[in-house]
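dumping this here before i forget
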Amino acid sequence: MNGPGGQRLHHVVKFAAKFVHDKGTKGRPTSDKRNYIPHMLEMAADSSLPLSPPPGASADWTVPQAWDSYTPAEHAMWDQLFARQSEMLPGRVTQAFLDGLDVLRMGHPGIPDFDELNERLMQRTGWQVVAAPGLVPDDIFFDHLANRRFVAGRFIRTPDQIDYLEEPDIFHDVFGHVPLLAHPVFADYMQAYGRGGLRSLGFGALHKLARLYWYTVEFGLIREGGDLKLYGAGIVSSFGESTFALDDPSPNRIGFDLKRLMRTKYRIDDYQQSYFVIDSFDDLLRQTMETDFAPLYAELEKSEDLEPDAVLAEDRVITRGTQAYALAKAG
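structure:
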């Protein structure tokens, strides 16, 4: 990811920044869909975000996890969520994710202790998980990624929030994201993304770069052993979307193309209408590392955005979706 450095903006760039409850429409069942809104898409300064860390946070906006403060009920909630997802994901998720769960010993009961988790993760790829009190400024977020630190919330949802949250909790952040940080190539990709994010600040291009994070890190699919598998954290931590993304005839499943993906808008209110499929983590890293993003941003500014359900003649279409789900919700 090439390009010059950038200015500091004060809108929020915690990409998985808000979960919105989908109440369903016209009698259709409620979905457990988690909707992650990258606030940088708004491209407007957030005057409510302080310029300095909140009380109790370090200069890099991190706070202690305070693992000893978790209650038995909070540990039980983690175990309930973990059991639900780990039962349904084998055969559906990339093997690298399952390997990460195993090598990081995330199957142990209770919320992971970041100190213990980081000891194993650092040995594998040099990454560590750091706790934050909430939203962080964009440059801080990208700097953490660029230095192999993944920012995670420390709170966990309550029983009445099991499928509805207003911001990502420790289960989404740690269960969804951290296992793949034990994979050397994906770990390199995440660091490269952080470095590219820092450089993007000078181009006013965060709304374009956010789409790369969205359609890979949060909602990506991968070819593996002749089948499509899940790897995006927004899917693997969602009970409903873990099924929808692979099995439902509604969404498009399109081969990964960097420029095309970065032209594509996405759903912030429900399941995705298109998923992009990478051939491998090596290819994802290669394409992003070899791309000079400065001229790409310039090209994208001259190109029209594509709707989430768009299919182009030049697309490598794996599955052309019926869009039945989106049409029914809109009807």
